[in-house]
Amino acid sequence: MTETAAKKQSKKEKSLVIVESPAKSKTIKKILGDGYQIEASFGHIRNLPTKDPKTDNLGFDVDNNFEPKFEIIPGKKAVVKKLNDLAQKFDNIYIASDPDREGEAIAWHVRQVLKVPDEKIKRIEFNEITPKAVKYSVEHPRMINMDMVQAQQTRQILDKLVGYKLSPVLWKQMGNYNLSAGRVQSVALRMICEREDEIEAFVPQEYWSIHADLAKDGKVFEAEVAKFKDKSVEKTIKNEEEAQKIVDYLKTSDFLVSKVTNKSTKRKPTAPFITSTLQRAASSKLGFGVQKTMQVAQRLYEGIELESGAVGLITYMRTDSTRVSDDAMAMAKDFILNNFGEKYYPAAPNIYAKGKQNVQDAHEAIRPSYPERTPESIKQYLDNDQYKLYKLIWDKFMSSQMSNAEIANKSIEITAGDYTLRAGTSKVTFDGFLKLYNDNDEEKAEDSKIPDLEKGDKVDCQKITPKQHFTQPPPRYNEASLVKALEEYGIGRPSTYATIITVIQTRKYVEKRDKALHPTILGRAVSKQLVTQFSDIMDYKFTAGMEEKLDKIADKKAVWNKVLKDFYDPFMEEVNSVMKTAKKINIETGINCPNCGKPMVVRTSKFGTQFLGCSGYPDCKTVMSMNVLTEQAEENTENPPEEVCQEKCEKCGSDMVFKTGPYGKYMECTNQNCKHRKPYRKTTGVKCPKCGEGEIVERKSKRGTVFYGCNKYPDCDFVLWNEPTGEVCPNCGSLLVKKVLKKGDTIVCSNLKCGYKKEVEENAE
Q1: Does domain 13-144 have CATH number 3.40.50.300?
Q2: Residue 88 CA neighbour count, 13 Å, CB half
């Protein structure tokens, strides 16, 4: 570039805009034009010192009102130098980091490292990257909000204090320097562990329901016994004998319609997404993990290359506000009226509020920046994940601005002696917002299958069926339900949910199996130690209360260093007390040493690798891979009947019995001197055709795929990918297997070259 050209460019580009992510640069550059240069800080540029916590270097001075001392993050020195060099060349410097606490803190840190006069620097923020929002922010800059900065720094100091003081307790007790504790992550772990405790302690209770197939004028419908002498019978029929008595009674009774209720209800649309509801919906409807949802949403917010260049498609995705701007509501109204008609727009706009929400708050719900850009119209510019998430956000927002749905409900009560049966159905008479979005995918409103009935009508009973049920334990958390629970308890904030869930999995405290979050043996041991010794820190209300105090700091209702002082003194007293008495503990695994019979425990090598070691060390030096625990967990199936076990111990020949450990069912030798254990595997009862001695059992690969193999493995390596029926092929003599297909089950020959197959015969009633 010539000297003249350089001078021209310098004269033209008078303003520097500093953003967090370079992905936004194209989008913002397109909006602001050539008079602005866009540069990125690439996130945080300074942090508290990251030296070894064993040196007790926390990075803040407890004796000087917790004054923090920040240092440039390793690897960011070149970024800081570039920003400083550029700052000298421009008349105006706009810091446009994200519109939240973290973004405000980044803006302050950038300001601290720029060696330019204060009057040059301006803070701007925008909730969406659109021409109107970005240009408005440039025209209305503000000062950096130090209350928000101090709230963020307080959280940072609290998190480091808790992590750096609690983690050494775990190191001392468990001999593992890779363990960590956290102010919020440890409470999330506690929730998962306590749910697992509930599941293990749960005792299923048997109950029965009674169903009748009733008919009128050739139309058959089902009704269920609901009351006995006006008292509910739900889950009160305890066994088959009681159920059969009711069945016998009903068989001799007349069935008369005693009540018909027709009711029309209106169902209101729900609010547009906030961070937590987006994460939950993306998990349940799209199968996205929390972290993936936020990564895809970030890309949609920062800008996608469309035909006209980079465009920010959604508003900021870290928010707990359900507010919608007047402009967005007006755009949604125009779209709905033009594309769906007047019936689909309510008489007055739908306005949503969440808690003590300030209507003037800059934050909005998560919505499309341009409602007229339908998902289908820009599908060609999006990858599959981007399209799915954008469609979810677009559908949810547009539906939130639409009319109520109208549902016609019909409820029938039928008397049979002392019993009352109920049947009901519903029909959507006007779909309204359901045209675009339904919160409950499993909910279906279908045309009525119940005939037109009136009070006093007699209906014919064609069949009475008793059905056995068992009460179910509470489900394990998945990522979506954990986010919901954290939000309900007030633990964490929208910007932290993804990090919390990622950290507890990265630390091997929790593992995801079939989308459910299972605590590992290590995770349960860590949680138990922390809950027992630090009840306040691990308390749900205490953690939520601390989040409220951070909010108060941001709102000028609390002083940041006083909040820290009030926390620090009792916390350190508790930590010091525990450290004085902390003793090393063993993490038991429920597995015995195959050589000496003593319990195997979790140990950690000097390199940080975990393994199973015999508790009899140094007399017994047996070690095993941690994969043994994972394999045992993966191979766990439904509970076997009672504790009857047909297998003999392969070590000593004694009987084997079923037992339950932390990772499910297993088999154990009854010989006290042997105590050999092996995972429980569901048997098919089919003899192995290869060795003639073993049986075919259900197994799972390391990826969780079910297959069937000989229980004499590794001596016999016979395997099948489908469950054997026990029959042999009439053509070639190979085993027949059951193949499960969408159109129905089929019996086929396991010999692929044979090709024999037959349809599954249904059991005759």
Answers
A1: no
A2: 6
